[in-house]
């Protein structure tokens, strides 16, 4: 798949035990960043020992089933409501959850969709969290407009840049479709 370099970089960070506190997936709209984040989250939380070899979540374990049903206790999603900005209340809602010890995985994951839509107050609240990270909580941030993020949020995140596929990648992706 055309996101293979990003996938390999994310897996490398994980296998080297170097996943950052905040991973920022950035690139123009329509590149599949949100789907990538969910798939990577499912892979990270999958309980199968084969996931490293297969590079895929098993889809069968309890953790995979929770993720498929958007009900994993170690995954918290924050997204803009009805195309509005992300409010400070949405960021504050995650704070007590972050203090809980993970029950089924080594880390808890906060997924923030369209992080560039943070209100100013929400941006400051997120920055405070990122400045004083919880050892058991990690963030996956998705943005199509990283230039809208505060420089300090960018500096506390590891960037995983997504680019449009080149023509050969598109042709390869669709060669088996009748």
Q: Topology, pairings included?
A:
Elements: H1 4-15, E1 22-26, H2 33-45, H3 51-54, H4 62-68, E2 75-78, H5 88-99, E3 108-112, H6 120-131, E4 137-143, H7 151-155, E5 158-161, H8 167-174
Parallel strand pairs: 1-4, 1-5, 2-3, 3-4
Q: What structural keywords apply?
A:
178 residues; alpha/beta; 5-stranded parallel beta sheet
Mean pLDDT across residues: 90
Instruction: Please bin the fraction of helical residues.
Output: 40-55%
Ends apart, CA distance between termini: 18 Å
Please outline the major beta sheet. Answer: 5 strands, parallel
Low-pLDDT sequence parts: none
Number of strands: 5
Could you tell me the radius of gyration in angstroms?
A: 16 Å
Strand order of the largest sheet: 2-3-4-1-5
Summarize this, please?
41% of the residues lie in helices and 14% in strands. It has eight helices and five strands.
Structural notes for this entry:
With 178 residues, the chain is α/β, with parallel strands linked by helices. Helix content is 41%, strand content 14%. It has a 5-stranded parallel beta sheet, sandwiched between helices. Strand 3, helix 6 and strand 4 form a beta-alpha-beta unit. Helix 2 (33-45) packs antiparallel against helix 4 (62-68) and helix 5 (88-99) runs parallel beside helix 6. The mean pLDDT is 90.
């Amino acid at each position: 798949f055309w996101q293979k370099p990003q996938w390999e970089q994310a897996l490398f960070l994980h296998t080297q035990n170097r996943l950052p506190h905040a991973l920022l997936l950035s690139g123009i709209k329509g590149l599949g960043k949100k789907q990538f984040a969910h798939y990577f989250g499912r892979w990270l939380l999958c309980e199968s020992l084969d996931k490293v070899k297969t590079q895929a979540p098993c889809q069968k374990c309890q953790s995979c089933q929770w993720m498929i049903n958007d009900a994993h206790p170690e995954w918290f999603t924050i997204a803009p409501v009805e195309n509005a900005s992300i409010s400070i209340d949405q960021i504050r809602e995650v704070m007590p959850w972050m203090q809980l010890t993970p029950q089924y995985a080594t880390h808890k994951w906060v997924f923030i969709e369209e992080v560039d839509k943070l209100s100013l107050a929400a941006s400051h609240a997120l920055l405070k969290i990122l400045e004083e990270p919880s050892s058991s909580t990690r963030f996956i941030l998705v943005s199509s407009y990283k230039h809208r993020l505060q420089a300090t949020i960018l500096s506390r995140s590891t960037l995983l840049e997504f680019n449009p596929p080149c023509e050969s990648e598109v042709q390869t992706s669709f060669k088996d479709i009748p």
